[in-house]
Amino acid sequence: MKNGPIEQNSEQNAVGENITPTSVKVELLAITPDAERLIEKAGRTCYLSFDKMDDASAKKFIKMIVKSGHHSVLEHASATFRISGGSRSFTHQMVRHRLASFSQQSQRYVKENDFKVIVPPSIRENSGALEVFNDLIEHSRRAYEKLKGMDIRKEDARFVLPNAVESEIVVSANFREWRLIISLRREKKAQWEIRAICEEILKELVAHAPTVFEDLL
Ligand SMILES: Cc1cc2nc3c(=O)[nH]c(=O)nc-3n(C[C@H](O)[C@H](O)[C@H](O)COP(=O)(O)OP(=O)(O)OC[C@H]3O[C@@H](n4cnc5c(N)ncnc54)[C@H](O)[C@@H]3O)c2cc1C
């Protein structure tokens, strides 16, 4: 997959077009089977127009639903993704989406002695910045281990961990919510990591339910 330097405002976003590979993995765990047919069946209940259904009718019907803004019909289908190799900065943004459901790697129950970090490309490509970054990570790692050695619980030792720490999260949402998440988080003013991840999520969704998602490409 692709991503780029940290983007906090539109000026930096122009630089963000310089995208480079990362180890983040987006895995589709589950999706409503025959989702477009289900959406059509549910939506046609509003108009009692089942007689108009044939092999090709779902596409036309869903296009009309998307265009008209009658998006509640899209809530009948959903998809679940596992996202690993992203940072806590990314997961913190993702969990702001209140209509989705989440299960995330816990820093209370999982030891972080050997934590991995996500290095933003803007830092990776600047040797001075990378030195500052690595310094902080090593300090943080040592502080965590020292605190653990003093019998401080994981839930408290984690206070010294940086936003760069790698995390894993499973996200479930209905198609209406995925459309919103992707629209908000894939645009240029969004941050590079969540943008790149949403790009991968969108590809999967388009592969399984093209009519619902292809207008977002
Ligand atoms: C570019 C960008 C920059 C951002 N910067 C910041 C920032 O600086 N600080 C910050 O705190 N957040 C920031 N956010 C997060 C943003 O404020 C939202 O929390 C996040 O995008 C979730 O969007 P949402 O609330 O529309 O959607 P969701 O939580 O996914 O909810 C989906 C939809 O349900 C409806 N809904 C959900 N809950 C309610 C409710 N209680 N009342 C009424 N309607 C509801 C709304 O229509 C909403 O759009 C940023 C987001 C983006 C994309």
Structure characteristics:
Alpha-Beta Plaits; alpha+beta; 10 helices; binds flavin-adenine dinucleotide; 4-stranded antiparallel β-sheet; 217 residues; 6 strands; disordered N terminus; two-stranded antiparallel sheet; single chain
Q: How is the main sheet built?
A: 4 strands, antiparallel
Q: CATH topology of the domain at 3-9 and 23-32 and 77-116 and 165-216, which one?
A: Alpha-Beta Plaits
Q: Helicity level, as a percent range?
A: 40-55%
Number of helices: 10
Could you say which structural class the secondary elements and strand pairing correspond to? Answer: alpha+beta
Strand order of the largest sheet: 3-4-6-5
List SSEs in N-to-C order.
EHEEHHEHEHHHEHHH
Mean pLDDT across all amino acids: 90
How much of the sequence is in beta strands? 15-25%
Number of strands: 6
* Rg (CA only): 21 Å
